[in-house]
Amino acid sequence: MQCLPIRLRPGDDLRPAIEAAVAAHGGAGAFVLAGIGSLDGASLRLAGAEQLLRLDGDLEILTLAGSVSADGSHLHMSVADAQGRVWGGHVTPGCIVRTTAELLLALLPPGQLGRAFDPATGYTELVVRPPG
What we know:
This is PPC domain-containing protein. InterPro entries: PPC_dom. This protein has one helix and eight strands; from the N terminus they run E-H-E-E-E-E-E-E-E. By secondary structure, it is mostly beta strands. Strand 3 (about 50-70) and strand 4 (about 70-80) form a beta hairpin. It is globular and about 50 Å long.
């Protein structure tokens, strides 16, 4: 495992930018260990919800964590607005960096992480393969 600190810039779309950073560093899989920063709006999918929650305006990223693989990503985030209200959920495209996003990624060897449909949950879930 290799740790990689990165900074995303204003205007970057958080989820695709994280996926691109992992791909650019030769990693086919990674975990987002931590993330902080600010957003100019966010789109989150709440637990069990079909519709996305769209939050407009300035937001602070309080937490950001998840997994990234060539088969897809699973990222969770909590954000707060200027009044201190907090929302959290699945990160979807449309979370635009306002000033910065600072992340720590743990890059894993190619082929170690993947995603596959799990009939027990009905979702595409993480598959962890032994290194090698």
